[in-house]
RNA sequence: GUCUCCGUAGCUCAGCAGGAUAGAGCACCAGAUUCCUAAUCUGGGGGCCGUGGGUUCGAAUCCCGCCGGGGACACCA
């Protein structure tokens, strides 16, 4: 049997309907849904089968529902099936069938909930922070959402490659090179260049470099100081002349160091990508020209002048002839420039090369996690991928809204200048990787969220991180007290001892884990996992609390070894499902609190 | 002006590819509890699901208009 008892029942229902209506084609049943009814008193499951099939069968749904209910009632899995409302069938499962979820979970372990392998290969790109400095909290949500989404898709049976695109070409890394050059000069003895007076402060040194070389130093961060030091140690004064070759060397060196830092930040967050793709390497390999040629071959490129943007026109706007891509053929609002008026490639063109590179590696589904400020970029990228793949490979983008960090009820401003620049490393150090990851997933990713530094470390019901971890720790504490019985030993327990509504409720919740995985993966909404775990923890805490009042409901009953064994099986299975869910989220379960 | 996301309880948010009487936590009210199975528990009040239409057996959910809010809008990355 499949892990998912809802899918199992759906199969039985479709089969039963097929016997009642032998002439109906299979696709008539495609909209049949089996789900837990909102109202618990309606039973364990409900199906809309009679409603959605009624029209094709030319039968009034209530009548069909009655027939279906009768057929289902004779199944061994089903205790009771009753037609209801406009054509639903409510199903109450045999308790034995429901309870069988417990040994199933124990047998499958944390693999419980895994979906059947899905065809195709998914490429999921996320983070892709520019290699111009350490990661800050703004990058954090995308990193967590992307990583959890990757975990979720894998769990659901997809073959997922986690990719990081390094923006190591273009103006920003050139600015990084200049800033590194400045820090390099500072690391040398002053008389090596004589650009500033002895004792000149940082602003003066910066101004001297800007004046001497006619550049603007955009990156002033102190994180470049060690880069300058290392350059001075490795090359002495050999790089004093900022020639093209020297700047290239410095750029590569700085990018490498920044990527090391970013990888360290990601590792601290528990994020590991499978592949790092370099923009500069793609350009060197000629991917840009290749992509352009592909588009040109389809007559999708032309020289043209774009209209001024609607609304407020920029003051310096002037018509310019550029190389344009016919994005409008693929649903975009305007055609998009591939080359600037000076003939150099746009970022968009490079990104097309990036996507061509993905397609060439055989991915059949492309996914991105982007910040919401990139929302306007989605259409054109989808247009490009559609053009390059003959509309066969879909590109989907999950947008992550901004996170406001709050402490003591006050927003924590992100300002490099004011020195309140919150790096990802700072955040992780303050509250821990697991709290960061879990909390980032307690909101839908396209909704703005507040990250309350005080709340995430609070040990109370209000803090879902704590609440879920606490449930696991409690379960583990019970199992330890019982001598940590092996799963194989618990599988044989006589589960008929589990009859309290709270116990059965917990089993029902666990039973829904596979369909939560399936649904969340299909919707690309990893936050659903966090909500599920919160609910599961709630069910477990409820049972625990009943045991506080009524000692007969406690898990360990010295006088009743069989009942104890059954309950330990339940507790153990619950802990397995929590671990399974936390595993998807990349959060480490705790054995005990503190 | 165009595109896009959003509008659900006093607050913060869920609502699972259209389903039955719309949920949770906080806050509020009422009880219980000081027990290491610790870091509370049980119950209760509270909603024109922004608004007006449409689609259909059925809409918080899908479509259109309006109102209100966030974000993005030539050659930046």
Automatic annotation (TrEMBL):
Q: Which residues form the Arginyl tRNA synthetase N-terminal domain?
A: 7-93
Question: Which stretches make up the DALR anticodon binding domain?
Answer: 468-593
Q: Which UniProt keywords apply?
A: Aminoacyl-tRNA synthetase, ATP-binding, Cytoplasm, Ligase, Nucleotide-binding, Protein biosynthesis
Q: Which InterPro entries match?
A: aa-tRNA-synth_I_CS, Arg-tRNA-ligase, Arg-tRNA-synth_N, Arg-tRNA-synth_N_sf, ArgRS_core, DALR_anticod-bd, Rossmann-like_a/b/a_fold, tRNAsynth_Ia_anticodon-bd
User: Where, subcellularly, is it found?
Assistant: Cytoplasm
Q: Where is this motif: 'HIGH' region?
A: 129-139
User: Per UniProt, what is one GO molecular function of this protein?
Assistant: arginine-tRNA ligase activity
Catalytic activity annotation: tRNA(Arg) + L-arginine + ATP = L-arginyl-tRNA(Arg) + AMP + diphosphate
Question: What Pfam families does the record tag this protein with?
Answer: Arg_tRNA_synt_N, DALR_1, tRNA-synt_1d
List the EC numbers from the record.
6.1.1.19
Tell me the first and last residues of the signal peptide. Answer: none
Does ATP-binding count among this protein's keywords? yes
Q: Does the keyword Endoplasmic reticulum apply?
A: no
User: Which principal EC class is assigned to this enzyme?
Assistant: ligase
Similarity comment: family membership: Belongs to the class-I aminoacyl-tRNA synthetase family.
The subunit structure is: Monomer.
**PANTHER family according to UniProt:** ARGININE--TRNA LIGASE, CYTOPLASMIC (PTHR11956:SF5), ARGINYL-TRNA SYNTHETASE (PTHR11956)
Question: This protein is called what?
Answer: Arginine--tRNA ligase
- State the organism named in the record: Sabulicella glaciei
């Amino acid at each position: 049997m499949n892990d998912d008892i809802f899918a199992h029942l759906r199969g039985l229902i479709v089969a039963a309907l097929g016997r009642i209506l032998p002439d109906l084609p299979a696709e008539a049943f495609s909209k049949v849904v089996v789900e837990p009814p909102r109202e618990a008193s309606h039973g364990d499951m409900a199906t809309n089968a009679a409603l959605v099939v009624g029209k094709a069968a030319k039968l009034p749904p209530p009548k069909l529902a009655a027939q279906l209910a009768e057929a289902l009632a004779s199944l061994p899995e089903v205790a009771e099936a009753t037609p209801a409302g406009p054509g639903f069938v409510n199903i109450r499962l045999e308790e034995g069938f429901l309870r069988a979820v417990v040994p199933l979970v124990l047998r499958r372990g944390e693999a419980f909930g895994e979906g059947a392998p899905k065809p195709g290969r998914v490429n999921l790109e996320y983070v892709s922070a520019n290699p111009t400095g350490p990661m800050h909290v703004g990058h954090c949500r995308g990193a967590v959402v992307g990583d959890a989404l990757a975990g979720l898709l894998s769990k659901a049976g997809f073959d997922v490659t986690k990719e990081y695109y390094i923006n190591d070409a273009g103006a920003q890394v050139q600015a990084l090179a200049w800033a590194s050059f400045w820090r390099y000069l500072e690391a040398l003895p002053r008389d090596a260049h004589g650009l500033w007076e002895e004792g000149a402060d940082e602003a003066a040194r910066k101004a001297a470099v800007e004046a001497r070389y006619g550049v603007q130093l955009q990156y002033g961060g102190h994180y470049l100081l060690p880069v300058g030091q290392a350059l001075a140690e490795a090359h002495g004064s050999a790089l004093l002349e900022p020639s093209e070759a020297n700047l290239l060397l410095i750029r590569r060196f700085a990018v490498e160091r920044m990527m090391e830092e970013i990888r360290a930040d990601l590792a601290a967050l528990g994020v590991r990508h499978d592949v790092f793709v370099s923009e500069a390497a793609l350009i060197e390999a000629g991917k840009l020209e290749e992509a352009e040629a592909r588009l040109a071959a389809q007559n999708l490129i032309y020289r043209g002048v774009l209209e001024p943007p609607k609304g407020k026109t920029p003051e310096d706007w002037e018509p310019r002839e550029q190389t344009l891509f016919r994005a409008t053929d693929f649903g975009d609002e305007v055609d998009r420039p591939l080359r600037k008026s000076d003939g150099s490639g746009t970022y968009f063109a490079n990104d097309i090369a990036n996507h061509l590179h993905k397609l060439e590696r055989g991915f059949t589904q492309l996914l991105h996690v982007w910040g919401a400020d990139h929302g306007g970029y989605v259409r054109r990228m989808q247009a490009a991928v559609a053009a390059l793949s003959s509309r066969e490979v879909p590109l989907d983008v999950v947008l992550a809204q901004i996170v406001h960090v709050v402490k003591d009820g006050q927003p924590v401003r992100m300002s490099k200048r004011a020195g309140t620049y919150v790096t990802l490393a700072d955040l992780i150090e303050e509250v821990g990787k697991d709290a960061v990851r879990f909390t980032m997933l307690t909101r839908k990713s396209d909704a703005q969220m507040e990250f309350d530094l005080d709340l995430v470390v609070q040990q109370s019901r209000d803090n879902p991180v704590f609440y879920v971890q606490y449930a696991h720790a409690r379960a583990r504490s019970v199992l330890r007290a019982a001598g940590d019985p092996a799963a194989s030993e618990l599988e044989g327990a006589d589960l008929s001892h589990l009859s309290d509504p709270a116990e059965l409720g917990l089993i029902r919740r666990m039973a829904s884990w596979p369909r939560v995985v399936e649904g969340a993966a299909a919707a690309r909404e990893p936050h659903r996992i966090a909500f599920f775990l919160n609910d599961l923890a709630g069910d477990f805490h409820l049972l625990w609390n009943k045991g506080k009042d009524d000692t007969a409901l406690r898990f360990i009953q010295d006088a009743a070894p069989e009942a104890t064994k059954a309950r330990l099986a339940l507790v153990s299975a619950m802990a397995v499902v929590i671990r399974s869910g936390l595993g998807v989220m990349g959060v480490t379960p705790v054995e005990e609190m503190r």
